[in-house]
Structure prediction request, 371 residues.
Amino acid sequence: MKIEKIVMRQIQMPLKKAFETSFDSMKFKNCLIVEIHDQDGNIGYGECSTFERPYYNEEFMGGAWALLENFLIPETLAATIEHPDEITELFSKYRRNEMAKSSINCALWDLYAKEKKMPLAKVLGGTKEKVETGVSIGIQKDIPSLLSTVQGYIDEGYRRVKIKIKPGKDIDYMTAVRERFGDIMLMADANSAYSLEDIDTFKKLDELGLIMIEQPLAHDDIVDHAELQSQIKTKICLDESIVTLEDARKAIKLKSCGIINIKVARVGGLTQAKKIQKLGYDNGIGIWCGGMLDSGIARAHNIAVATLEGYTLPNDIAASDRYYAQDIISPMIKLNGTFIEVPKGNGIGFDADTYYMDKFTVRKAVYNKKY
Ligand code: MG
Prediction:
């Protein structure tokens, strides 16, 4: 790959409505976009999915910018790279910070596929023509609101419904949904809100036939999760706990989970996501792809990786207009029912919308290869 320069931008995308999480309320989604240009004019795009503050993991936007500028980008420009997997090896000396590493790894995969004039999904080894998406519902103020929200999505055709839970808004809420909607693919996401002392809650949830409970215990735990998994029949899905291939190997060995939610950004990019899905697939672990409120660039990478055979469950890959009036890719990502058609164009298969990319850019730097 004949890399000529790398451009890094901070993009500020206006959200249609403020996005509430347990730790923040955002009106804009800031993200870092990395463009890797080759000598033939091809451009590979990657996205660094950190939030502005280090609440989800140790990474944050200002830190990621500095890490990319001081280490990851100079190293990429200085290297001779034939295949994107090589960058993962090269970056392995830097501890953690997988989201920053992921932006370069994903941009190289996009560039690599464009140089080969092939869709990224095919280059990765994906076989699906469309990928299924489920819906994720935040914590609602009461049960009637939850039921009417779920009804809306069922009417839209979603088969998998994920509901965020926390202590006090769990058993009654999930039971009400199960009773009203019968045999739907129902799951709960606890975002680490519980401990092993809450075993009685999990035993009650266990009677609801959920397809999984996502990340019930601490964000960095696999030991207590193994204990919990041994006491309930509902599969535990790990999200935050799985950062590396080694984490996945250990979690499988300890029987800490039956399912893994692979977020490409969280695990350092497509190279690692591919390895974790293979390990999971070979060990009978269910896999699906989660997201980070990303722009269309990261969503496009997620669509591509979800075409791999190990991705056996509906994914959290939303249409662009779920959160944004305007995306930075063209065309915007649309759902066909609850499926997304895998694009057939080269690389990620979507063009960067340079007008909106420039319009939303609040900080930009260009780094040239030195000869
Ligand atoms: Mg999660």
